[in-house]
């Protein structure tokens, strides 16, 4: 025989009680020693309207680095297409290669900027 489940208890919510006393002050953290040194490198190219894969050879030296760095060498990577940051699900970065994971390429002439941020501790 299957037991019949009991109906859930009706929950009654009363008024909020008074605020409790404040706890003791916590331990002071370490002092901030100043700005964290970082390096910001930019790989820059323009879309040709067809390609979804860009390599070091497509980089424009007059605007930044021509190297697409390995994700293991940097702290953060951001991709901007036409100045708009792209979600990480829209691209893949490997040493020397940027792959756009979109169904179509950006329009011809649209700037593509890959930002590499290195935190130098």
Automatic annotation (TrEMBL):
Compositional bias, Low complexity, is annotated for 22-33
Locate the region Disordered: 1-33
Pfam families the record matches: DUF4183
Quote the Gene3D superfamilies the UniProt record gives.
6-Phosphogluconate Dehydrogenase, domain 3
For this protein, the record's InterPro entries field holds:
DUF4183
Q: Which domain of life is it from?
A: Bacteria
Domain DUF4183 as annotated: residue spans: 45-116
What name is this protein filed under?
A: DUF4183 domain-containing protein
Q: What is the species of this protein?
A: Metabacillus sediminilitoris
User: Lineage of the native species?
Assistant: Bacteria, Bacillati, Bacillota, Bacilli, Bacillales
